[in-house]
Amino acid sequence: MIKLIASDIDGTLVPDGTDKIDPRMMDVIRRMKRNGIIFCGASGRQFASMYRLFSPVAEDIYYITDNGSILRDYKNVLSMNVIEKEDLWEMVRDAKKIPRSDIMLCGREWAYCEDEGEMFYWLRDSYKFNVKVTGDFESHITDDIAKMSIYRTGDCEEAVKREFVPKWKEKFLIASAGTMWMDIVCHGADKGSSLRKLQEHLGISPEETMVFGDNLNDIGMLEAASESYAIGSAREEVKAAAKHIAPPLSENGETQVISEYLDSIGAE
């Protein structure tokens, strides 16, 4: 029997960069809880954004945030991976060399931008982030940073792959988090590693776990569950890694699959 269901957010449960979640999902999570099944949201988003998204059930679920760098419940951080400042500032300088790009740094409670550009307003107004404008990062940030993101409209993945990835891929995990985002975290800080930590924390096995995802940064999480679903609109690499294909996001495929599973076990 499934005891834990983990899901990516953007591209899987909501259209990228929005809070347009299927309202039925809240009742599904409540139904899961009544039947002893735990839900975990797993995202490149920060905790505050995810807490707002799941506000009706926010205190009933677990959170894998910042692309796997932080694992927590609504009150307590269970684990956090921190990027060493020397490496961080060098990566920031390298990222600034990528034309038309912008940078976000994510701490435990806040995200940081150097100025009020397009990325800042999208983070604040669409993703509902707790985000601050700092000016020069190196001069003003003392917070521990769990994730660095590079933002560029249109072809972020290709632009970052040209020079940034070859230099840093051995030291950090660099993964696409959507068409406009590349996320950089410490090795061992991906969603799959955090899901395995949560399984250990809860005493739940991969055979008792169901996972949903759509992008490359979800593959490690899919590999940590026996019941893995790529949403129908997922990248082909993700579909190849998953055991099942769910209906697409446009049809609220995850809500359908979980509801059918709960029906199949006679859940209340």
Main features:
33% helix; six-stranded mixed sheet; alpha/beta; globular; eight-stranded mixed sheet; 268 residues
Number of helices: 10
Low-confidence sequence ranges? none
Main beta-sheet annotation: 8 strands, mixed
Q: Report the span from N to C terminus.
A: 15 Å
Element order: H for helix, E for strand: EHEHEEEHEEHEHEHEEHEHEHEH
The outline comes out as globular
Helix content: 25-40%
Structural notes for this entry:
By secondary structure, this protein is of the alpha/beta class. Helices cover 33% and strands 22% of the residues. It has helices at residues 24-34, 47-53, 85-95, 118-125, 137-140, 156-168, 191-202, 219-222, 236-241, 253-264, and strands spanning 4-8, 38-42, 62-65, 70-72, 77-80, 102-106, 111-113, 131-133, 147-151, 172-176, 181-186, 209-213, 227-230, 244-245. Helix 1 runs parallel beside helix 10 (253-264). The longest helix has 13 residues, at 156-168. The two termini are 15 Å apart.
Task: Give the SSE map.
Layout: E1 4-8, H1 24-34, E2 38-42, H2 47-53, E3 62-65, E4 70-72, E5 77-80, H3 85-95, E6 102-106, E7 111-113, H4 118-125, E8 131-133, H5 137-140, E9 147-151, H6 156-168, E10 172-176, E11 181-186, H7 191-202, E12 209-213, H8 219-222, E13 227-230, H9 236-241, E14 244-245, H10 253-264
